[in-house]
Design a protein that fits this description.
CATH architecture of the largest domain: Beta Barrel
Strand order of the largest sheet: 1-4-3-2-11-6-7-8-10-5-9
Helix content: 25-40%
Largest sheet: 11 strands, mixed
Low-confidence stretches: 105-122
Mean pLDDT: 78
Strand content: 15-25%
CATH class of the largest domain: Mainly Beta
Structural class: alpha+beta
Number of domains: 2
CATH superfamily of the largest domain: L,D-transpeptidase catalytic domain-like
Distance between the termini: 35 Å
Number of helices: 6
Radius of gyration: 23 Å
CATH topology of the largest domain: L,D-transpeptidase catalytic domain-like
Amino acid sequence: MDVDYYGLLTRAVAGKDAAGRDRIYHEALGLITRSTHLTPEAAASHTAALEDAVQRIEDELAADEAKHAAEIDAVLSTKGSRRPAIIAACAVVVAIAVSAVVFYWQFAGKRPVAGGMTASASKATRGQQEVVMGDLKAGVDGGSSGEGLPFALQRQVVFYRTTVAAGSIVVDRESRFLYLIDSNNSARRYGIGIAGECLKGGNLSRVTNKLEWPDWKAPSADIKDALLASAGRPGSLLGARALLLDKPGLLIHGTNSPKTIGHLVATGCIRLVNDDVEDLYRRVSVETRVVFVS
């Protein structure tokens, strides 16, 4: 790898405030994640190098601010009447340093959220305002692609540091992401929708069966108790593929309603758009470990 991310980003963010730097960092990350000529390993390496450069730049900016504040403090400390100003200057420095740290982890963290919100802020808003997204009717094909979704919810390779073994699945129920863990601190990330009854429960599971074009017994039947073998029709409420887990009602499946990805939904369990669930289906096998986090 011969990309000097530190040099490029230093010039790009010169004179920018935190919001401006944030936008440039995210644009740089987007160029990597959208690149079609990079292998997953190369994308992960470029992402790690980019994040190292971001951290170095933000650390240097914070250090400069601290040095500047110290110089101000040295001047003001000779005049007792300016003690309140000294305290105010220190408070500003602390605020800037904290903002820089929070910003960096928003950028480099494992759970970016569409719209630039932090994961914790998104969770708080979700808990207060989230409503159940309705599905299209059975037999209506709303599409298979995630192209119309926010970029964060589209399938992509991301930097993801974890102790979970490569080849395992991690489901982040709150942030609405499913990760297929790769080696070298990277993962293939998919946006998901989730039913309310699947927000709780155990943390460990495994894949026990795989179905292509699963169907249900009748429109009035409960999906979790009514899985049938292949019916082979677009518009299935369970989508193109399903991974059954070892607990009743727990499954990872597709959908005929791509716009529900990222939201709380009324039916099924953990859903992906059909293109994504087919991609995941090809990459995992029976007995794959599934870890749920909140």
